[in-house]
Amino acid sequence: MRFVINVLVCSVAIWLTDLLFDGIVVTGTKDTTANKLLAYLVIGAIIALVNTFIKPFVKLIALPFVILTLGLLTLIINAALLELVAWLSKATPLELHIDEFWWTAIWAALILTIVQMILNAILPDDVKA
């Protein structure tokens, strides 16, 4: 149940990021509301999977540099993982497109992190099935 909530949180975060930035675009096969919703859910699931399985290893490997930069490297790591999600989404008919890494991906990673932090603070930690 926690993974489903994580997917929903990531989907809402990528939707808000798509609204705020012109350089972030989520596309699907058709331009219907249901297809847009499905696209955000699929991209949210990919983000949740990357955050669950890949992000801990990358942060562990980069830990000395994160300490050296006082945590600023974490923003670059999040932007790089967002680029990874964009690359992985090309294998599906629903795609996340990021214009450029330096400003678009970094600002998008910052917004995603803030929105996920707020939504995770609002939603309960323990969900009883």
From TrEMBL:
Pfam families named among the record's database cross-references: Phage_holin_4_2
Residue ranges crossing the lipid bilayer per the database entry: 7-25, 37-54, 61-81, 101-123
Keywords, sorted A to Z: Membrane, Transmembrane, Transmembrane helix
InterPro entries: Phage_holin_4_2 (IPR007165)
Top-level division of the source organism's lineage: Bacteria
Name of protein: Phage holin family protein
Species of origin: Angustibacter luteus
